[in-house]
Amino acid sequence: MDLAALMATRAHRPEAIAEAAARRPKPDAPLDASGKAMIIAADHPARGMIGTATNRAAMADRGDLLERLCAAVARPGVDGVLGTPDIVEDLLLLGALDGKAIFGSMNRGGLAGATWEIDDRFTAYDAPTLRAMGCQGGKMLLRIDDRDAATAPTLEACARAVGALAEHGLVAMVEPFISRVADDGRRRNDLTTDAAIRASAIAAALGPTSAYTWLKVPVVPDMERVVAATTLPTLLLGGEVSPDQDAMFASWQQALGLPNVAGLVIGRSLLYPPGDDVGAAVDTAVGLLGREPAAA
């Protein structure tokens, strides 16, 4: 990867980004013929989250992250990427997104560890830009804390974004959690079954229409109950890197067999897997969708 050339293009030909977006081949639809999607996620750094459970600076090297992303997105069976403008634009300039679905991350203002973290301001993509750049949809994080009034503006902003995306015929991918500040002062998402059901029910009703809304939810116990809470297409997120990859993959596979589960949106778990073999981790995830992974 020629990072010097990438940086020079950004400095001297910024218009090359829009040109690359305009000329790239677009996918026919965000989901494949089977109604499934395999999306690689990379929007954590924009909220100041540059580490994993085992490496606090894993995503601090942008060149290394881009190499991992290019390797992951290029694997057979991968449909696209979820990222912030800076990352998506790097990948466009590198020619890594031809024929791939692009979901732009929209609200990254709830910086990790900030006193205002629950107030997830929309600081990245907006609906008109996503449309102009030929993206397939936008993603928003929705954390709901009943004890923090700053949740209300985020709910309202997400509802407006759902409506704006729908006006452009773009998918609104909503990632909802019930969230609380723990005794140690850190904000954590509630990954119980009941919390996931409640979060999904709230997210599904956001905006003036749900016609283009998809949910992005964690894999929790009793996923049958979570999925039963809505008729919206539901994608599974990967969460933190797990030291037990086999158990992680098994939980994804079980959930993928449920009605209206439409695929995987996975980031750190595949980009920084135990053993550091990105290709092998992605191929295993692709296989869970019933697709043929790359030949050895």
SSE inventory with pairings:
Blueprint: H1 3-12, H2 16-23, E1 37-42, H3 62-73, E2 80-83, H4 85-93, E3 101-105, H5 127-132, E4 137-144, H6 151-167, E5 171-181, E6 187-189, H7 193-204, E7 213-218, H8 223-227, E8 234-237, H9 245-256, E9 261-266, H10 268-271, H11 278-288
Parallel strand pairs: 1-2, 1-9, 2-3, 3-4, 4-5, 5-7, 7-8, 8-9
Antiparallel strand pairs: 5-6
Beta-strand segment tally: 9
Into which percentage range does the β-strand content fall?
Answer: 15-25%
Q: State the secondary-structure class.
A: alpha/beta
CATH architectural name: Alpha-Beta Barrel
CATH class designation = Alpha Beta
Mean pLDDT: 94
Describe this structure as you would to a colleague.
- The chain is 36% helix and 18% strand.
- It is α/β, with parallel strands linked by helices.
- The protein has one domain: Aldolase class I (TIM Barrel, Alpha-Beta Barrel).
- Strands 1-2-3-4-5-7-8-9 form an eight-stranded parallel β-barrel, surrounded by five helices.
- β4, α6 and β5 form a beta-alpha-beta unit.
- It is globular.
- The protein starts with a helix and ends in an 8-residue tail after the last helix.
- The mean pLDDT is 94.
